[in-house]
Amino acid sequence: MGCGSLPNGYAIYTCIYCHNYLYVPFTCKSRFCCSCGTRYTLDRADTIARKSINCPHRHITFTIHKDLWPLFQKDRSLLNLLFCAVSSTILSWFYNQNHKESFTPGFISTLHTFGRDLKWNPHIHVLITEGAAGNFTPWKKFNFFPYTMLRNRFQTILLSLLEKHLGKNNFKSLKNHIYKTSKNGFYVHAPKIKAHDIKSTVKYVTFCYDRHEDNKRIEETIHAYEFIKRLIIHIYDKFIYMLKPHVAKFRKHLRNWKCRIELYFHYDPLKCSCGHTFHFYYIVKKSYDTS
Ligand SMILES: [Zn+2]
Ligand SMILES: [Zn+2]
């Protein structure tokens, strides 16, 4: 609630031309703050975009039996096992598709500790590529994710990880209870993300080349994606990221508070009323009540 108020500390900027001062209060940096929290969300989206491969993705939700919830609430360090179980579930399924290739998809897992009703309900959201890189095949499309397999595999892997962690005897009765009451495995949801309306953005490329056989000039018109596909087939061992490196670098630069204010509120907060620029001068730390 005290986000951005002066007692929490502030930076002082000064204008060397008119000796004006500017006080910039520090923000709280809490994820629950409506201002700072939004900032984290934007940063996260940006970070994910920078790491993502430019291909269709699937959103998978991995949930667990509700009788396991209290276990994770009591000992938060167990939450890491959820990530381990999700990761093993995904990687082992891809490995089983072809042992020699041992396909590896790209995926990012995020922990949510609450459901829509805000009650404690730890579950994992995964953003995964609809394709994977193999040892020999640079990229293979996978757009089929078998729910039943994911459900059962995730349940088995997580329960055995928990058993290892908590001890066989301590976990035995809960484990049996879970197997008895959720015969189909934990609920795993993987809806297909609707592709954007590609038709409206259809673009064609016309190009020409001299044919080897008869040296004849050939003109071809193909879809832009097909054209790109033909080009990138020659690039080996490297992925096409969603953001080009220079774009990623530029967007990172936009993350400082001055740029953000310019971006969202359309004014330069460091511009003095005299027209010159404020320069950093001093930091005043948070004042602690010592009474
Ligand atoms: Zn000034
Ligand atoms: Zn805040």
Tell me what the structure shows:
Strand 4 and strand 5 (120-133) form a beta hairpin. The protein has three domains: 1-30 and 241-291, no CATH class; 53-194; 196-237, no CATH class. It is flat. The strands form three sheets. Strands 3, 4, 5, 6 and 7 form a five-stranded antiparallel sheet that branches. A three-stranded antiparallel sheet has the order 2-1-10, with no helix packed on it. It contains eight helices and ten strands. The protein is of the alpha+beta class and 291 residues long. Residues 194-202 have low confidence and may be disordered. Helix 3 (79-97) crosses helix 4 (147-166) and helix 4 (147-166) packs antiparallel against helix 5. It starts with 9 loop residues before the first strand and ends in a 7-residue tail after the last strand. Helix content is 36%, strand content 22%. One zinc ion binds next to helix 1.
